[in-house]
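Suppose you are handed a protein chain with no further information: no name, no annotation, nothing but its sequence. What can you learn? This example shows the usual starting point.
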Amino acid sequence: MYPVWLSLQLVFHIVALTLDGLSASKHSGEPSANYLMYIHNWCYLLLILSNVIDLVVNLYVHICARHILQERESETGGAEIVMRNRTAKISFKTMGEYYTVRWYMKVTWVFFTISTVSGLTITILYLLSFYFIRAFGDSYGILGTGISETQWEFGTIAFMLINGAIVVLHLFISAKPFKLLHFYMPWAVYFVYVLFSVVYQKRWGDFVYRVLDWNQIYRTFGISAIVLVVLLPLVHLLVYAIIALRVRIGEWCLIKCAYRRWRNKKKVRPSSTQVDVVREPKSRKHKKRIRENRIESSNIDETVDEDIDYTKSFDQTGSPSGGTSIGDSTNNAEYQGHTDHRDRRTVSASHMSMASRSYDNLMASPRDQTLADSQTEVSVV
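A reasonable first move is to predict its three-dimensional structure. Written in structure tokens, the prediction is:
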């Protein structure tokens, strides 16, 4: 789904850039080369470039280099879940020790950091410009020579407001890391633009923005220093806080999912071949039925033991041979009694099996009890 999100984002950026470029060339009367003089166009082009690189790398990894995904999933340092006393701990800090980041992924990382901080900074500067317009008049517009309170064109809304919303949404969707010490990357872009404004005004004699009029060097230097030293680090810290919040939310979701899987796994009843599960009775009637079944099964066991002892003693004396003497008649009587005992033993064994089945049905679940009843009916038939 992430490549789909990148594709939709890229289509929107290309449409917004095309419409803004056409409207700027028709209404402003400036040459098309002047379109690249403004910092918000720089930042928007960086955002599009970052989007293109990210999309190309993702398609390459998912199509041509799927072994990278398998390698990352097989490593234990990426997103390992350790259960300790019903608690899951997820470690993302040791990922670099096990997983090697490719050079093209590092390129996407750099452009992601630059475009994110630069885009949010432009949005904040644009919102601050309206405050300065209301407070000090139109002569202190921050983001352009012709900015005013009624300037709500498509390019302005797309570059300044929608751009910031997309950047914040992308922070929660993307899983790229963000380092606090990488603040120098977006800072370098703004520093290069300040140098560009100095060279441009010295070469052509005109300023790009009114706040970057180097003829008033103290005011322009102060504003540039505030943006470079104060605003950019604060925005970078804000992005870092958003990324930390995203990681915490992801950890919480993974912990909840892992705990639910662990808890549901404990509730699964193992098969009878693996372990003999004994369930405790829950009601007095249930306990009474269990005691009655135990007493009945113990009585049956005693009867069967007596029959077995008698059978052994009779086998030692020998079976009757069909004589007509008194001893033979006695043996015939004993043999007939033994046959009766054997029949009674068979009946007792059948009662014992039925009692044991009823006991098992009593201790088993409703599903197992239904299965046991069906088996009993089949055996009776």
